[in-house]
Amino acid sequence: MEFGLCQVIMQERTQKMRRFGEKLRTLRKRQGMTLQELSHALGHADHTYLSRVENGKKTPSIELVLIIAQMFDVTTDELLKDNLEVE
Fold first, then answer.
1. What is the per-residue pLDDT across 6-54, written as a single tens digit (0 to 9) for each?
2. Are 71 and 5 in contact, with CB atoms under 8 Å apart?
């Protein structure tokens, strides 16, 4: 029973990471930015981290969520809640 619950929690977490990545990609492309340009604007030397976030393979840090929200003028709720779309 506990293993099943853990598996469900991990699946939900993976889905939320993927959804955040989709929203980040949408916002970035809407601004006409490449992944490299966004990485540079965020002070990252390489785009690998953001690529992994966009593809749902890496969990975004709280700091990244806050910066992305401010940069693209959206709320953290819009970024993090599955049922809300980015406007």
1. 787 777 777 778 899 999 999 999 999 999 999 999 999 899 999 999 9
2. no
Is the CB of residue 69 less than 8 Å from the CB of residue 76?
yes
Letter string b/e over residues 28-58, b meaning 16 or more CB atoms within 10 A of that residue's CB: beeeebebeebbeeeeeeebebbbebbebeb
Domain boundaries defined on the chain: 2-80
Q: Residue 67 half-sphere exposure, CB side, CA atoms within 13 Å?
A: 13
Q: Which CATH architecture has domain 2-80?
A: Orthogonal Bundle (1.10)
Give the pTM: 0.83
